[in-house]
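Contributing new records

If you add data, match the layout below exactly. Sequence lines come first and carry their own label; structure lines follow with theirs. Keep one chain per record. Anything else will be rejected by the validation script.
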Amino acid sequence: VLVHPMLIAGWCALTTTALNCLPVGSLDGGRIVQSAFGRRALAFTGLLTYLGLALGVIGSALSLPFGLYILLTQRSNERPPFDDVSPVNSNRVSLALGLVLFSLLTLLPYVSQSTDMMGGMPPL
C-alpha cells in the first residue's frame, strides 16, 4: 500500500505528541496532571502508565523502549507548582482530561493488534 510521506510524518508527530502527553514524571502530561489534580493523582496515573507501557497496552511496539527511556531519564523528583493551594478552575481541569484522553486514544488503537496476536477478541 502506497502512502503519502505527509501521512507518515503526521503519524509520527501524533505519536510523539501522545507519548509526551502521557501522565508520568516530568513529561508534559505528568506536569499537567500534577498541576490539575495533585501529586497523589500523578503518582497513581504514573503507576498505571508504567504498567500499561510494561504490558505493551499503550503504544504496542513503542511501549518498552519509551518506558525504559522514561525510567532512565526521569530520576529526579518533580518540582511542585508555584501555587499548590488555589484550586484549578473547571476549564483547565477539562483541558487536562482532554489532553490525557487524546494521548490514550492516540496510543490505544494498537491494543486490537496485540490482543489479536494473543488469541483474544477479534478487532472491531
